[in-house]
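Batch manifest, entry 17 of 40.
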Amino acid sequence: MIRNVFKENALNRKIRRQKEDSSNYQNKYKVEKLYLSVVIVNRYQGDYYINKFLDLGASSSFLLYGKGTAPSELLYMLGVEGDKKDIVLTVVKESLLDKVNEAIEERFKVSKSAKGFAFVIEFDSVMGVLPYRFLSDTKNNEKR
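Output type: structure tokens
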């Protein structure tokens, strides 16, 4: 009985130490801001963006299918064809943001069917070291 109590106390101390070490992660390791790049294009155009962003070094991309409900007059005014869209969500580090934006601009210039909408949302915070490392695709921690 007494041994079990001592073991539990020792285990609790180890867990507390691990939590304290990860709380100073940004002081010990290089942490980059993360952004969510959103690109909305005509259906079947999204695969190009996913492959291009992964080649540039973006950590992860997600492809969603969308169907618009806007009136045809509004679609005509915006110069958008059809209502079926690909929505590409990509998590991008700050150092890659310019390259990703350049790739989007280049693709939009290719043809009328390759045009779409693109915008970037900054992450305010990420809760925890493991989710940050997953989203930023950090395999090796770079010390400061």
